[in-house]
Amino acid sequence: MISPTDRDIPFADAVWLNPPAEAVADEAGLLVTTREGSDFWRTTSYGFVRDDGHALLTDFPPGTAVEVTFRADFTELYDQAGAMVRVDAGTWIKAGVEMSDGQPQLGAVVTHGTSDWSLAPVPDWAGHEVTVRVSRSGDAVTVRARRADEAWRTVRLAPLDPDAEARAGLFCCSPQRAGLRVRFTRLAAGPADTALH
Which residues form the domain of 67? Predict the structure, then answer.
């Protein structure tokens, strides 16, 4: 069962990992502009390490969930945004919407020393508000996502050391360019989900 996120987190109360070119808070949320070539990736297939994507993070202890809502308005290859779980530079999860193969894709990258990547096309999510939810329980993080108020889709179940000190929140990157602008409308927290299904 998915638990409600009962606490909005003011964007000003979270901390930037790799501040973006610009982040402007207003009545509509937070508008973030990326730096050129920003990304999170470790080694697999490409042979490089990137750890300069933009992430605005808050505490993510066991037994909690974090939700990130944003508008999926992407036009160029690898434009991406969503939710990140971060332990350190070699241990993290990013999940959200990314432009690949000419259309928006719902996916996740799980990194334990090296990164993996999974994708599924969501062309009808383009230009819509999307929410990504990460829920931490036991030795796992469950990642879910949905367009607007539609039903949740399970994206990934990934391992995370139950004793790890982790942070979670929003992220965005533009590996192929500068100046991607992402409108985030909500960062929220609550209790972890009580069941996987």
Answer: 7-189
- Number of structural domains, the chain? 1
196 part of a folded domain: no
Helix (H, G, I), strand (E, B) or coil at 12: helix
CB atoms within 10 A of CB 157: 13
Q: What is the pTM of this model?
A: 0.96
For the chain, what is the largest distance between any 2 Cα atoms, rounded to a whole number of angstroms?
A: 42
Going by C-alpha positions, the residue among 105, 110, 150, 101 that lies closest to residue 129 is 150
In the chain, the amino acid numbered 40 is F
Report whether 166 contacts 60 (CB < 8 A): yes
Q: What is the CATH number of the domain that holds 101?
A: 2.60.120.200
Q: What's the pLDDT tens digit per position in 77-127?
A: 999 999 999 999 999 999 999 999 999 999 999 999 999 999 999 999 999
Residue 87 in any domain: the answer is: yes
In angstroms, what CA-CA distances link 106 with 103, 113, 159?
10, 23, 19
Contact 59, 187 (CB under 8 A): no
